[in-house]
Amino acid sequence: xxxxxxxxxxxxxARMLVEAVRTxxxxxxxxxxxEVDRSAEFPWDAVELLRENDVFxxxxxxxxxxxxxxxxxxxxxxxxxxxxxxxxxxxxxVQGLGxxxxxxxxxxxxxxxYVPRWAxxxxxxxxxxxxPGAGSDAGALTTRARRDGDGWVLDGVKRFITNAGxxxxxxxxxxxxxxxxxxxxxxxxxxxxVGRIEPKMGIKGSTTGELLLDSCRLPGERxxxxxxxxxxxxxxxxxxxxxxxxxxALGIGQAALDYAARYATERQAFGKPIxxxxxxxxxxxxxxxxxxxxxxxxxxxxxxxxxxxxxxxLTKLSAMCKLAASDAAMRVSTDAVQILGGYxxxxxxxxxxxxxxxxxxxxxEGTNQIQRVVIARELLRSLGSPR
Length: 387
Description:
Number of helices: 11
Largest sheet: 4 strands, mixed
Number of strands: 10
Radius of gyration: 21 Å
Helix content: 40-55%
């Protein structure tokens, strides 16, 4: 496999953690990936494996039970898990996503209640922004929040929520009197339920579903940050979570490249391995280059976040790394299917699963069309151009 170590060197402890995740992924998770895809069942055995080996802790600071090794280490771990099974890589990425609103703007009481449970894997986290009529246009959400004495009541529907039905906590964005506001909803809160779980083309072991909020009553301390400040919080979260999807895409793409390259050295045509054919060599070269270029962007953003970056430059580069990595994963996995020919199209070989898994990385956490809008907006803003 290609050396995926970052340009910014990791500490010895962090490097050892990533190597341990790599071993776990290859020995314990990869052998189950095809079965998870076939059954489309949530992989609780993988959750238990991540719990036992403290992998969820990679997403969180040390003072709350995490490893405190930073975003760059977290991103590499997501890539390693996704190399083995994109569904399991998503488990770690979304655990970080679901915890970010509390880490960024939650109260100390909220951090003390939730973060240690997320870091240990005792509780699974989820993030609920998307609605039936509010996906790319997140500001159009219609879920409502109204004050009720010292508490809140939420009404609305969320859709396409990762970890729906298996999560213990959901960060829910709703429109209050002062504007979009973030709340912490727990799975057993009155008025909260899970609706339809979607059948999907890829990442089949990950649940994606609908959340129903029917006079869902929350105590006042469930408000995250300030009333009306939820949209800004959601955008700050996305700046920090998009690299996780980029890392997932890198893992998928690298796995497809590794399999296709190995196959090309073994498959004979016209009396020699197809890897000796220049057409195949050019495909492999382009696949490897696209992934390595995207990996450089992902690692740069990870290092920026570890250095405390915020603001416009982070927004732009975060969108760039998600765009580059997910487009690369889709192209690479599609080319891997082509290299395998007819074998690439059947389920006995893993590249067709990787191609299906790769597609979602161009869609969720902001479609790649939205990433291009974000990149252009920040670029023109930096040049002083009117929007």
